[in-house]
Design goal:
Blueprint lengths: L25 E5 L10 H7 L4 E2 L1 H14 L12 H20 L2 E2 L2 E8 L7 H18 L9 H48 L7 H4 L8 E6 L2 E10 L3 E2 L2 H12 L12 H15 L2
Parallel strand pairs: 1-2
Antiparallel strand pairs: 1-4, 3-7, 4-6, 5-6
Helix pairs in contact: 3-8
Amino acid sequence: LEDGEDHVFVVMNSVFPAEASQFLSERFDLKGSTVGRECSEEERLEKGSSAILKDLDLAREVELVKRFEPKSKSFGIHIGPTAKAALLSQLRRDVKFLVHCQVMDYSLLVGVVRMTPNSMDVASLEAWEQSEWQEARFSALAASGQPSEKKNSKRRGIDRLAAIFLPPIRIISAPVLYAGRRLWSGADSTVSTVLTRPLPYYGAQQTGVDGGSLSLVQGKRNGKQALYYMGVIDFLQPWTRRKVLERQLKGIVGYDVHAISCVPPEEYAARFLEFLEEHIS
């Protein structure tokens, strides 16, 4: 270069596929800090699904779920206990290396792909079955005008017969119905996954680019099937005197020095992992 100095260029693979804008419904940039870490309403309106949601956006959502459904184990970024354990184990190893390198200000970038926005789950099938029975039960009794005493008597007779014969029929048929519901749910999930699963990063087969098994994880988002693209980004910022000064100045003007992004690598790593532990399920 003209200045005669050596420059190092770092080229990294994108966490999201090149076609991400076509199918990503949400994007999160998570650091574990809380000062200024939220997506503005203007950005949401302007960018839609391309808006970058941050720590406070996810934290508020998880807080609401826990408040109204305290027993729910599906909240925030839901990938299940096995995948969560594997992800956090890998992140602990990665973060340990980043602490050793004395860098900070990195974040976990998460892209959400909603797989089955209109799928019917087991609970929906049960509700559907009940509504079908109710409709079949009363359709023969529906008539225009005020029902006569004869029709009322007939309806009472049907109700009595249903009360006698329906319970044993339901008990006998319960295993078959349950197996049918589970089979339907599994088949719907499998077909949906095959048809809607996003393609890997374009050119991966030719270039050998591989983000690892945890870069694309299946899970759920708000109770619906989803895929999560995940990767640690922006991990080249060293903890310098300039960053130390930045932290001190923000503390002087009134910011909580433990809630801002600019904290020492050891504190940054611990806070980063703690936040993810609490908001991934």
